[in-house]
Each structure stands twice: as C-alpha cells, then as structure tokens.
Write a structure and sequence with these properties.
two-stranded antiparallel ribbon; 58% helix; elongated; 6 helices; Arc Repressor Mutant, subunit A; 2 domains
C-alpha cells in the first residue's frame, strides 16, 4: 500500500485550483498550477485527462482557457480523486481476490483488508472544502502571529520612548 505521486499530485493540483478559484472565476491553466506547485506540466496533463473524463473538472479551450472544478469543493472527496487517477492504496497483496497464498486467503488477509477499508473510509470523509478550510485556518493564523509579533515589537519600541 503506497500513495503514489499520481494521487498526491492530483490532490495537490485540485486543492491549488480550489484555493485560486476564490481569487478569480476564470479557468485556471495547468501551466499556472505547474509553476505554483512544482509539478511537471505533462504529468498534470495526464492527470487532468482522467479527472475531466470522470467529471471532476471541466476544460475550456482557447485564449483564457483552462480548467475549473465541475462540482462544489464539498462534493469532491479525496478518495474519489485518488481512485480516478488509478492510485491503488490497497494493502492486500491479492487486491481483495482472497488468493493471497496458494489461491487461498492468507493468514493476515483480514488485517490488511481492515486497513484498506479504514484508509479509504478516512479519505472519503475528507473533501476539498475541508482542505481549503484547513489551509486558510493555518495560513490566517500565521498572519495573526506575524501581526502580533509586529505589534509587540512596535509596543516595545514605543515603550522605550
């Protein structure tokens, strides 16, 4: 069981889109995502073909073209994204076929089956909206801490006068 770059990059790219869609309503280019996230443009193109075919994103051609999310961020869960780009996070060596050992279920099949179920169940509960909120919570807190530090520094400077 391993989350590959396909899944990681697909989630990262869609989160980038979700964060930047708030700033502008125009379609977002893969080039811009590539630049901001350091992901190969050709790799993003391969991922977005799959995401578009499954209706997660819509594409627009021509000048001003790019991609937009086809659904509200609260309707796109992380498990869905990972499955669409063919990332397999199944911990079972038999992938659920129960032929792990000599065409029979191995001794630890139920353990790995449970783990696989929990991983997908966890990721199904997390949406792009959750990740956007989490990003803003952490990002906004950094600005608050920074502002507080500046204010304290200013207060210290003023108290010396």
């Amino acid at each position: 069981m391993k989350l590959t770059t396909k899944g990681k990059f697909a989630v990262t790219a869609l989160l980038d889109m979700a964060l930047h869609t708030v700033e502008c309503i125009a379609p977002i280019t893969l080039y811009n995502i590539s630049e901001r996230q350091g992901i190969s443009l050709s790799y993003l193109e391969q991922l977005f073909v799959k995401l578009r075919k499954q209706g997660v994103v819509k594409s627009y051609r021509g000048p001003g073209g790019g991609y937009i999310l086809a659904h509200n961020t609260s309707d796109i869960n992380i498990s869905q994204i990972i499955k669409i780009v063919d990332d397999d996070m199944d911990a079972r060596s038999c992938h659920g076929m129960m032929n792990c050992k000599d065409n029979h279920k191995c001794l630890t099949h139920d353990l790995w089956n449970g783990l696989t179920h929990h991983v997908y169940s966890y990721l199904e509960k997390i949406t792009l909206s959750d990740l956007v909120k989490n990003y803003h919570t952490k990002h906004d807190n950094l600005f608050q801490i920074f502002d507080f530090s500046i204010n304290n520094q200013n207060l210290r400077n003023y108290s010396k006068i």
